[in-house]
Design goal:
The complex is a heterodimer of chains A (153) and B (379). By secondary structure, chain A is mostly beta strands. Chain A contains 1 helix and 8 strands, in the order αββββββββ. With 379 residues, chain B is α/β, with parallel strands linked by helices. Classes of the chains: A mainly beta (153), B alpha/beta (379). Chains A and B meet through strand 4, strand 5 and strand 6 of A and helix 5, helix 6 and strand 5 of B.
Chain lengths: 153, 379
């Protein structure tokens, strides 16, 4: 069977699947994004059952199956839980390599969030380092209202 | 448990199977499984297909392989996720008493899309997706933290790659059989620290099919049954930041339940072989620990001692694992099929001495959910 394509180009149907789609952020994420955009404030939301504060905020506690209820201002500082420095220009990347992604536990929160690590020589990034949110100059109500996190030292 | 696997069929795993569309892959795997069980399609009374719409580039992707699985005028259902989860659904149907035989398939053709863009779409569109993470960069974050906490070294990760690619040389279905050294891995392209190219499984095409039968049907067929002794799955929180990525709580829970069903109290000594979801080198070590086959943080050291080699005390991935070929979705079902061959004593050059083995599948980013199968020669 493998031979049937010997010396010839197999027929291929090519397409770019491109389906317009819009995701409504919902009331919890909207409040968080609007605070980032308008006040440069980072908000978390607390679970009344376990007391954990989630940033980014969730309507439902992933541990307790309980609706979170109390908004808390957290950050803008935090601690780097882990990170990677991407060196191959992977197709999903929005920036030129090297790109540093971090998992950041915001001060006052109990979980962590994914974002970029910047304003640093990537070789000097370490687990446990203190970082601080840097807000984008031109902010919209998305996660990109935070430009990146920069080390404090 | 009153159910056994009576037939398996695998296509070779390849980088680009241009001669087959995915229904053609299913046709090959299904017919191999039927021949393996010495039954015909008329003996199959229900079908579970396992696929992913995003990987297949079409909605309701399960339907596209239906004709090749003879679902016309039969009861058919579908699972979106790893093949081990599809097989668990198939098993529960067989055990329900309503069906005697379940055909389970799982397929994907990674060659037809761009894996980085497909896996980026697994991230939450509101909070995360626009950052541009994909399966490799997300797994690199987990690998970095796991190594930091446990002291597992890049050399130990590299040794997983050496072992599995070498094992792949004995597996005629493997995509990347290779003799490589630790230095080859460490000198390969650094894609996302700490993961080198040879720490990552390849993008692959392939399809696997298995046939699950109830005990009554097993008596009627010539095929050698491999008995299902325990199956369990468990999930963790969706967001990476809502989990401790260095821990494997979902896997530990799934393994404990599966072992309890199988009457296993000391997995390190009571399991002869494990086929584990090694999408990345560090994951084989993490999952070995989560499965209770090594103390937390100790899998790398046991690996160095040769425990998990083909001729070691507990061979892990003698097939070559996902590192030697990773058809997403199908990969876990391949693990089950491999354990079936091993327990039957029909694994050819990769055969080890095995009466009882485990197969493991993963769904989601950084091991969000896990499925564990315990298979045995004896009922």
């Amino acid at each position: 069977m493998g031979n049937i394509f010997h010396g010839i180009e197999p027929s291929v149907y090519k397409s770019q699947i491109n389906v317009p789609y819009q995701w409504w952020a919902g009331e919890t994420a909207s409040k968080y994004f609007i605070a980032l955009r308008d006040e440069k404030k980072i908000l978390g939301k607390q679970c009344p059952q376990c007391g954990k504060v989630y940033c980014p905020p969730k309507k439902t506690c992933p541990s307790c199956f309980t609706e979170t209820n109390a908004w808390k201002e957290v950050g803008p500082k935090g601690k780097l839980i882990s990170y990677t420095i991407v060196l191959r220009q992977l197709a999903a990347l929005q920036k030129k390599v090297p790109v540093a992604f971090g998992l950041i536990c915001i001060d006052g929160a109990d979980n962590a969030m994914l974002h970029y690590i910047g304003d640093v020589d990537v070789n000097n990034i370490t687990i446990g380092m203190e970082v601080e949110a840097v807000f984008a100059d031109d902010r919209n109500a998305t996660i990109n209202a935070i430009s990146h996190f920069k080390p404090l030292t | 448990m009153d159910a056994a696997i009576i037939g398996i069929g695998m296509t070779t795993i390849e980088k680009n199977k241009i001669a087959c569309n995915y229904a053609d892959l299913a046709w090959e795997a299904v017919n191999k499984a039927l021949a393996d069980a010495s039954i015909t399609i008329d003996d199959i009374d229900n079908v579970i297909t396992t696929s992913s719409d995003f990987w297949d580039g079409r909605t309701i992707s399960c339907m596209a392989v239906g004709d090749a699985c003879a679902v016309r005028h039969k009861n058919c259902s579908a699972v979106e996720g790893d093949g081990t989860f599809g097989a668990a659904y198939g098993l529960s149907r067989t055990l329900s008493g309503d069906y005697k035989t379940t055909l389970v398939t799982a397929h994907s053709k990674g060659s037809e899309s761009i894996s980085s863009i497909i896996t980026n779409a697994a991230f939450d569109p509101i909070y995360e997706r626009s950052l541009g993470l994909d399966m490799i960069s997300a797994s690199a974050i987990q690998a970095k933290q796991y190594m930091h906490v446990t002291g597992t070294t890049p050399e130990q990760l590299a040794l997983v790659s050496c072992k599995n690619h070498k094992n792949g040389k004995d597996n005629p279905y493997a995509q990347l059989p290779m003799d490589i050294t630790v230095n080859d891995v460490l000198n390969s392209e650094m894609i996302a620290e700490p993961l080198h190219k040879l720490d990552c499984s390849p993008v692959s095409d392939g399809c696997c099919a298995i046939i699950i039968a109830n005990a009554e049907f097993v008596k009627k067929v010539k095929a050698k049954p491999v008995w299902i002794k325990g199956v369990a799955f468990c999930s963790d929180a969706y967001f990476m930041g809502d989990r401790d990525l260095t821990k494997t709580i979902a896997l530990e829970n799934a393994a404990k339940k599966a072992y309890m069903m199988a009457g296993i109290t000391n997995p390190e000594n009571e399991i002869d072989i494990a086929e584990i979801y090694d999408a990345f080198t560090y994951q084989e070590l993490m999952w070995i620990e989560g499965l209770g086959l090594a103390e937390y943080g100790n899998a790398g050291k046991l690996l160095e001692k040769g425990i998990f080699n083909k001729n070691g005390k507990l061979p892990v991935n003698p097939s070559g694992g996902l590192l030697s070929g990773h058809p997403v979705i199908a990969a876990g079902l391949y693990r089950i099929a491999e354990i079936v061959l091993q327990i039957r004593g029909e694994a050819g050059a990769r055969q080890v001495n095995a009466k009882r083995g485990i197969a493991h599948g993963v769904n989601g980013i950084c091991g969000q959910s896990h499925c564990v199968w315990v298979l045995d020669k004896e009922k």
